[in-house]
Amino acid sequence: MENNINEEFVEKKEEKKSYKKRKGKRIFKKIKNLIKFLLIELFKSMFRLIILGLAIFVISKLIKIDNRKPAVPDKVYLEISLDNKVLENKIKNPFDIDNKINFYGLLNKLDKIEKDKRVQGIVLKLGNTGLNRAQIEELKEKTKELKEKDKKIYVYSEGLDNHNYNLALIGNEIIMPNNKWAHSYISGYSARYPYYKNLGDKLFIGANVIHIGNYKSFGEAYVSSEMSQEFRENTTRILDKLHNNYISNIENTRNIKDEKFNEKVLNGDFVMATPEILKENKIIDEVMYYEEFLQKKDIKELITIDDYFERLAEEIDYNKIIENKDKIAIIYAEGTITSGDNPQLENKIEADMIKEKLLKADKLENVKGIVLRINSPGGSALDSDIIYEAVRKIEKPVYISMGGVAASGGYYIASAGDKIYANKETITGSIGVVSIIPDVSKLVEKIGINYEEISNGKFTNLYDITKPLSKEEIDKIYYSSLEGYEEFISKVALGRNMKIEDVQKIAQGKVWLGEEAKEIGLVDEIGGLEKTISDLAKDLELKDYTVIESLESRKLEEIFRKFLPKYIFSKLSLNSSVEKILQKDEFLEEFFYKPIVYAPNLEIYY
Questions:
Q1: Which of 58, 61, 266, 510 sits between 20 and 30 A of 173, alpha carbons compared?
Q2: Taking the model in full, what pTM does it have?
Q3: Would the pLDDT of 587 be above 50?
Q4: Per-residue exposure over 22-39, b if at least 16 CB sit within 10 Å of its own CB, e if not
Q5: What is each CA distance from 257 to 167, 242, 261, 343, 497, in whole angstroms?
């Protein structure tokens, strides 16, 4: 009987095990079937999307064929707005919905407008402007060519300030609406810089900022509650010069003979001034509403500049375009100089990418010369040096064209070029080095964390932010940065064919305007991107050539990580200021703990 019980128990156990096994197989089969189903559905969805995409593409082409744009009319005016920021580089990606052009693309468009006899002129509807001072300066030169061909430039604005009025000065006439709500904010200058030390003290967060160069002020905001004398002196000199240039430009362009004009500006007479007051003081020409202005100037044909170029594209005979001409290549270095693929930065300069583009241009037989367009406040010292060496090794001539800023690491790169061009108001120089090491040791102590350490050897935790740096550690970082600074000086001296002692006199982190930089030997010529290109072609004795741009392509993965979330967020919020806030601070955590060559922000607030 006992044997029967045991046998029965074993049978039940085996049956139970068999049941579990069958159940496991059924579950596994269900999971397998589910995965198979999901994969099939996924492929079906992808296939449907592809078919849908192809259908939309074909339909759009058919619609385009059936709805060809009308020809560009005679005696037409082109309406243009320059509200958005115009980058030097154009980043190509699948989500380039707005189809924004870069700055050289804008100059090219104006070239085509200049040659088209059907275009009578331009109406610039001026709100805010995304152009920097150097771009405005170059645009003024370009519009002179339009005026020489008897093409009128009218500027219509509902509100003027120091920055957009600088652009408005390109116009033959400046018009504002006839009402009391259209005000101006033409004034002196104001530049405000936040200092965080007091806040840091309250939060028990500090930093060690080690400068090489008495005027190398970047980072002082973390360790001081007020502006250093050196930074104040350097910045005041630059802003005074910018203001004097601005007033002189207004007086000359508007033919203002009033000796007290600058006094009136500084006194705030044109702050919140009505259009009538601005007209009385020759700051604008006419006061009328937009429709009245069009009627008075007999502007009957008016299309947007985008519409014009869509129509123009249908007139081009692409079979006549010859591709075997000599070429000049433009390579863009715009943004913060950084190492690696960092999605936090929208505009960045990566050493490997710049090297690759330089080498490619150097190997292309038809490319006779290279223009490196730099718009950068600097960044990683190491990567600045790597790009410097890459430029020096290029066999073809490399001319440097500076944009709004080419300072610190931006100038480091520029000094490797065969010839350097800058606009009068380009921000450059700032030859110096700074190291920033955060310090949260007081915060750690305050919240009750105690670190016990086991180590063997000196400087093993040099960049540990949970402890204060000792004098010996600070000295270690200082002398390492000093060696880097001396390397910076020597590279500039080599590139500019200057004596080291002469470079030292103008270094120390001092910031210079383009016109000052020419006087002290940091720059060769005053001129923009087009002058750099034309001078290079002239020096190479090229008579018939084309210009090619090395534009940047973003990886799809990076677009999803960075650009697309920002784009969606800003569009959903229906607030363009969101994008500005998201782009405001591009200084990264990766620049802590190592020497950087970065210029202070000299943005002027009005």
A1: 266
A2: 0.80
A3: no
A4: eeeeeeeeeeeeeeeeee
A5: 21, 20, 8, 52, 44
Burial annotation 559-593 (CB, 10 A radius, 16+ → b, else e): beebbeeeeeebeeeeeeeebeeeeeebbbebbee
Domain positions in the chain are 15-67, 76-313, 556-584
Give the C-alpha separation, 391 to 333, whole Å: 12
Cα distance between residue 131 and residue 335, in whole Å: 15
Distance CA 353, CA 339 (A): 10
In the chain, count H helices and then E strands: 21, 22
Rounded Cα distance, 172 and 161, in Å: 18
pLDDT at 217: 85
Element (H, E) at 303: strand 301-304
In sequence order, which residues have a C-beta less than 8 Å from that of residue 473 and are 6 or more positions away? 459, 462
Using alpha carbons, select from 434, 394, 391 the residue that is nearest to residue 414: 391
| CA distances for 204 relative to 192, 207, 439, 588, 589, angstroms | 25, 10, 9, 21, 19
Please name which of 432, 403, 434, 429 lies closest in space to residue 415, comparing C-alpha atoms: 429
Provide the strand spans (E) within 33-170: 76-80, 91-92, 119-126, 152-157, 160-161
- Report DSSP state, residue 177: -
The backbone region for 541, taken as left when phi is positive above 0, alpha when psi lies in -120 to 50, beta otherwise, is left
Q: Which one of 80-89, 316-325, 399-408 scores highest in mean pLDDT?
A: 399-408
CA distances from 279 to 137, 275, 299 (A): 24, 6, 22
Nearest to 431 by CA among 175, 188, 213, 149: 213
Q: Tell me the residue type at 15.
A: E
Residues 599/490, Cβ–Cβ less than 8 Å: no
Distance CA 384, CA 392 (A): 12
Tokens read off for 473: 């550690």
Q: Does domain 76-313 have CATH number 3.30.450.40?
A: no
Do the strands 511-513 and 525-526 form a parallel or antiparallel pair, or are they unpaired? unpaired
Give, in degrees to the nearest 5, the angle at Cα 145 between 144 and 148: 90
Q: What radius of gyration, in Å, describes the C-alpha atoms of the chain?
A: 31
